[in-house]
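[User]
Protein folding is very new to me. Any chance you could explain this protein sequence and its structure tokens? I have pasted everything here:
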Amino acid sequence: MERSPQPNVIPMKPPDVREVKARLLQNLPHVLRQLLPDGVVRAGKFIVGNVRGEPGRSLEIELHGNKAGLWHDFATGAGGDVLDLWAEVKGFDRKSQFADLLRDIQASLGAMPPPARTQPPARTSLGTPTAKWDYTDADGHVIASVYRYDPRPGQKEFRPWDAVRGVMKAPEVRPLYNQVGLRGADAVVLVEGEKCAAALIGIGICATTAMHGAKAPVDKTDWSPLKGKRIMIWPDHDEPGQVYARNAASAAARAGAVSVEILKIPPDKPAKWDAADAVAEGLDIAAILKNWERLVAKDPPLLRKTLPLFSIADLQRDSSPMPDDLIAPRILTPGGLLVFGGAPKVGKSDFLIALLAHMAGGASFLGMTSKRPLRVFYLQAEVQYHYLRERIQRLAFTEAATLFLNANFIVTPQISITLNDAGIEMVADAVRQRFTDGPPDIIAIDPLRNVFDGGGFGGENDNDAMMFFLAQRLEELRRRINPDAGIILAHHTRKLLKKTAEEDPFQALSGAGALRSYYTSGVMLHRPDEKRPERLLLFELRNGPELPPRMVVRTARGWEAISDYAERLAFRDHGDRQDAERLRKTDTIIRLIYEQALEGRIYTANQFAEGFENKEGLGSSRTIRERLSVLATKGHVKFFKNADDYGLPLLARSRQGYLCVDGMMLNTGRLIVPTHYKDPQSGEILPVLYAPGLPFSAAGETEDS
């Protein structure tokens, strides 16, 4: 048997450290995927959990520029260059095993699959590309490309090429276009598509776009190159262009852009008109960017000449008097923001009108006071004129207070206005013309929802949009009218669940995250029982004492405090007992359930229907069951499943348990308390949340009721 010839082995030349390192950096993304396969690319960095390659975010490796290959593990503090990383991952000691380290890298580079192709196939099923745009990093290295194909007349198709992975698809994280130009620019025009960006770049204007234009996935795009820059967004003249502009504005602001504006395209421009069309038409692009109307999504920060700093000693020595509260105790302070919340139809506007009128007249209101009559501007966008005057005419004041009220309380009828740039200017002009003796002390807006401008970030439930409204719109309105004015915002809440009302009622405000981090005080008007007229006032003061809740009620004389809430509860329980007694007299089924229990007999729904079929004028068992279902839906009949607690026989099979009604007692004199009720929306039998002292009618409230 012939011996196989020996392979022709060509020995590797001794490794050169500069050459090895250069080869690593040349193919860095490819190398890192082989070395740490569970890592991901985010915002120009390779991210992984640790040098063992576990998933996570602690270890970051720079992919581009002069810092390419540098890494840092934020969990351990370790870091270094790409050679240090290889040593840590493979277990080499760089000092004592440096030669072995280089040979291992050289051998691995020779064994690795070749790096991805830098170009796609010259021809695809769509034909030959008719245009190409390269996406590079800030140093000009190609990350991806977008190819345009025109397979048929009037049809265009775009295909992205991932130059790092060598596949005809978009990168995992999409880069922005023209990053080389972005790096040295202060102002950038963000357009929709590479054609528009290239047109502006061609006339000397720094421009960029997100990959795929209006269809760009915001959450998969790296917007970080826009940090610290002034951004003007030039959208296409269509609805997708407006959506793109709003989403891009939010993303640019979050990425740290100094300012963000959206250019408003004149309505006479044709559909889909864009920046490339403007260049082709020979328009003065610089004049457009300077003079055309725009929506301000983020204003540049106000520059301070100095940062005020105080030592503890400075603060301790300052004995100057505290500024007077506008509404005491610390409900509203000069320059402060009070958010007055409540669910729809709870009486917010009526309560707010009464509060403002009392403050304008120099009169106290439910324990809230002002040291002098205050000038009040009330911008309300909810109550029509005739119903507004009806509410105002119900207010009762002394003659002296009325004189102050007439001069100090200025209110709008129901108006439709948005507090954008134009709306703020309109309101400020109107206030200056009306308040000739001095600016208002209080600016009240009711409700926030009707005047809200989120700057393109979203609605009032979006915290970014809410923060924009508070910091950019509301503060600008205050600055234009009176920088020391206190602002009151009336704002809707979601329906306040029982658990939320007990634990954190102010979290029910729409946009609560931004609001609560910004306001100086909050007041909530809550209706604990939808069947009762009482309202509960809740307070949250940032700079004042903790105030206990106050129970108030609207009477013919206006809003009044209920001095003894326990007395009111007792009165309510007495009224509930009277209602239950009247119901027993008029409904045979409820009367029978109540009377039978007094004789020691209790029933399930089926037992009751069968036991009283064709008795007491009740009809068939089916009719009785249907009537019981209606009474349970209305809350007049509930159920209890803890029969053993009362010494009663347990039920082997019962979805509902035994029937019970309000005030029902056994022959032992023991009161039956329901454990379950029928949910009127779903029809499900649910457990009640019962607290001692609650009447029967309140024992059906759950967290969802």
Observations:
- The radius of gyration is 36 Å.
